[in-house]
Amino acid sequence: MLDVLRRIIQEVNGARSLEAALATMVRRIRKAMRTDVCSIYLFDAERERLVLMDTLGLHSEAVGQVSMELGEGLVGLVGQREEPLNLEDAPSHPYFRYFAETGEERFSSFLGVPIIHQRRMLGVLVVQQQAMRRFDEGDEAFLITMAAQLAGVLAHAMATGTLTRPAQADGQAMFAGVAASPGMASGELVVLMPPADLNSVPDLIPTDIEAEITRLHEAIANVRKEIGVAAARLVKRISAQEVALFDAYQQMLGDAALGQEVEKRIREGQWAPGALADVVKRHVQYLERVDDNYLRERAADIRDLGRRVLAHLQEDSPRTPDTFPEQTILIGDELSAASLGEVPRDKLVGLVSIRGSSTSHVAILARAMGIPTVLGMVDLPLPRLNGARAILDGHRGRLFVRPDVEREHHYETLIAEEKALSEVLEHEQDRPSETSDGYYMPLMVNTGLAVEAVASLKSRVGGVGLYRTEVPFMMNERFPSEQEQTRLYRDQLESFAPLPVVMRTLDIGGDKDLPYFPIDEANPFLGWRGIRVTLDHPEVLMVQLRAMLRASVGLDNLCILLPMISSIEEVDTALKLIDRAQRELIEEGVKLARPQVGVMIEVPGTLYQLDALAARVDFFSVGSNDLTQYLLAVDRNNPRVASLYDACHPAVLGALSHLASESRRLQVPASVCGELAGDPAGALLLMGMGFEALSMNAPSLSRVRAAIRRVSLADTRTLLDETLALPTTAAVRAHLRQRMGEWKLAHLLPPDD
């Protein structure tokens, strides 16, 4: 049966139209299951009826004519309940209804299963038999599998506009992915297809090896030039560390890297395109076997470079468009940093990619440039989307393809309001983040790969709440030396002095990895990451600690933060290493003061070790993103479950409130550095809990500041009490929006559905 299933799926996926796919489905299913009838009913949301769209076994003239409401007849019952219905004697069922147009009075047995895509009922798939027969478990499982396959076909049809009826209620296709960079945009989709197909290169023996090597080097030189042009377009809008992304591309193309390996393969007897494809695919396959988001992104970078070089080796390869629409939403299977740079910045308004995560190069650049971005957008039929009108919602990770006039007008209004709000809020950014009853709430900034005007930020924040030291490690081809790290850290400390700068020790693993230090694990988020890695490699941690301490000389604004702490033993070991680094530097004649040391509260187990932690460290910093992820067992980079990730889940809020209360009892300062702190409503809740500082990405500062300045501390405590009593995430979100509306602050939140 599995072979039959595969053949049907291949045939359906190869169909040229929805009608052809439906016809193939009913024909092949009826034959595979040896039934008398196979029919497909699709849900017309405008009419709220299930419509017979194709059948083999019932009267063909009934197609498009027979329809029923949800709950009407056996088919309507399957659609209403969204569960299979298996009957040996269908006419005896109380919900049975006879439709004369179909001629189905001859059939006794009935098996119907719902067609569901992303929790939305799209239709019902039915088989019927003249003889009385109860379909067995294998039959039922087979039909459920086919319905799931048909759901994907329908989703594609809705996206391409080939499905005109039935249609969705709002008149357009909507796809969901992982929100990687906030904001909203409307424009025209430009599909960026891979410049060449590495998998379709034939093997050929070269007649002139030296000529093939010359061709290779010319192609690499052309790609290096293209990468340089792309980097030059972005250089004024991104930081020096972000420019390093393009430097990494150039290094991969260097003679000592990709070129040398491909040249060796040519000399072994393969022509240039084949040698290139062999080398690139070998590297990609190796990296993709590692179950780690960051390494998978490096595989994407290598694949992108290989395609670009191959495009110059092949005369008929598709090229990047010469011109772009004024409002371009770039869309592709996997977008790279280089492909982003090919679009003029004044025309690029959004990015969509089927592959990718929040740690990909393109996500890092998108956040830095303020471009709305959604990644992990599955079920997109790329070749047929080029030129389609679309709306991208980077707040929720949604893409609306071919939106109707009402939807487009709605989002145009929201986009205009968002732009106007940013301009208005800019005027009060140098004012204190103080409540209406005089309570000052320090706002701090997270630094790393973001376009930050340091000079202007210094007057607007209480310091750096999180400096991600792993970023320069990620941009290097090796571990940076003590001298290199000292220079980087000194720049950060000097830029914000005398304000405190919280530097987190190297936090790799999980969704962050180093190309030169791979971590191969089946479950990286529960594995070797954060402090676990650096304690196992004290030679790496000691260099970093020495660099931090040396950089702080004369400034004394350094705070060291230990990530991914799960046990007291880890803290004790790390503190001994900090003491040792300080002693070594003092022995070398360096005069320095001991910095404050804190731990990240992100592993749920630490919530039950606060007394012991408080006896050892100076402050707590809550990593709300990971704490939420671990409390809810949700990988926020997985588009299938990303909707379940929400820091406003009652369990998360309860844990945070408990932590704030315990921190006050223990007299240990506690701050929050995560997405919840950058959410205006979330920030008010955290303030009501009693957290002493909030740290966020720079773009969030203006909205959070505006919210704090317009409420009283007493109001936030009342809001907290009301919210903690609510049982569901939806109830919490609804209540927060209601209260923000009452305070006339709803405009600070992302637009409601």
Automatic annotation (TrEMBL):
Keywords carried by this UniProt record: Cytoplasm, Kinase, Magnesium, Metal-binding, Phosphotransferase system, Sugar transport, Transferase, Transport
Cofactor(s) the record lists: Mg(2+)
Entry EC no(s): 2.7.3.9
Enzyme class: transferase
Main location: cytoplasm
Secreted listed as a keyword: no
Domain of life: Bacteria
Location in or out of the cell: Cytoplasm
The keyword Metal-binding belongs to this UniProt entry's keyword annotation: yes
Protein name, entry field: phosphoenolpyruvate--protein phosphotransferase
Gene that encodes the chain: ptsP
Substrates-to-products reaction catalysed: L-histidyl-[protein] + phosphoenolpyruvate = N(pros)-phospho-L-histidyl-[protein] + pyruvate
Stretches assigned to the GAF domain: 17-164
GO molecular function: phosphoenolpyruvate-protein phosphotransferase activity
Signal peptide (UniProt feature, chain positions): none
Family statement drawn from the similarity comment of this UniProt entry: Belongs to the PEP-utilizing enzyme family.
InterPro entries: GAF, GAF-like_dom_sf, PEP-util_enz_mobile_dom, PEP-utilizing_PTS_enzyme, PEP_util_C, PEP_util_CS, Phosphohistidine_dom_sf, PTS_EI-like
